[in-house]
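quick one before i forget lol
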Amino acid sequence: MESQVLDVLKAIASQFEIGGVITSITPLGEGNVNETYQVTCQETILQDKIPQEQLLRRYVMQRINTVVFPRPELVMANINVLANHVASRPLDKDWVMPTAIPIRNSGQTWLEREGQTWRMLTFVENAETLQTIKSSQEAQQVGRALGVFHHLVNDIPADALADTLPGFHVTPGYFQTFKNGMAEALANPHFAISQELEICLNFVNQRAGRVDVLEAALARGELKTRPIHGDPKVNNVMLCSTSGRALAMIDLDTVKPGLLHYDIGDCCRSGCNRQGEETEDLDAVVFDLSLCEAILEGYLSAAKETLNNHDFDYIVDAIHLITFELGLRFLTDHLAGNVYFKVNRPDHNLHRAKVQFKLVESIEQQEGTLRAIVERLRP
């Protein structure tokens, strides 16, 4: 890192209430939304004004992407609501909730500097994330992490949280955007439908009748809006580096009011495809029922009391729908010229859509067994 850049980052970090002397600032993680750094400080512990020991403390400093989150103050308000609520509740001795560090001499938890928005969060020590799940034990812990999170925040009134991403995971809205994008593409005289694209379009149209399954249940009063994580994919769960036990859920920017089913579906979608979203081997894409069962077992070990009978009724629909939704979003972005998701070739998003649609097919082929698993887990 260039010394000039490092000096700027140190100047930003020093604005927050962190202890000790900043000894290093290094890039952290592989996220593609926020710019993230690990800040390490050395703090001297005094006793009777005599230095006793040196402690190293680490923090997470991020530049919030205001294109994705145009109201960063609402993002931080939500994180503060979570922190204040959880602080008043008894926690599992292993569980950690990342919290925001305020600016010095201010209660504000975000810093505006030269048109950029920065924040500082506590660091989860002795922990690591997974990119893919390799065992049922890991799957159980990923599910348990989401269950603990939902259990802890379940009694926060939904209207106490700002909706930082309106329309996020509301599948009928994505379907309408897809139809609009298709109409615009067809209006272009240079647009041609390839065989691959035609297969995907047919796939979507054949499943149009299922896109409103969750929103219709919400409208009927069978489901209700509650606090959700919003992005509970596998690599947003932190596991203890020594025991493998779930310690925390990170990336709380997407916390908002929504349906728990968005989270449950997305967690299972991301965790039960051993090949990952970027695989080139479509034939190997399978929805792994054993991993799904383990995720749901882990989830319900912590969150069973937060679900009612109607909630159980729609778990399988949620897993199917959220997987279909991501494929639809990839396909829509392909039609729009790849403007949202980062790509490394023109047909990248089309291929990503095909991976998700293959996963949807696998879910459909095993839907009876999946429903039987949910029934077995129903109290």
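fyi The radius of gyration is 22 Å.
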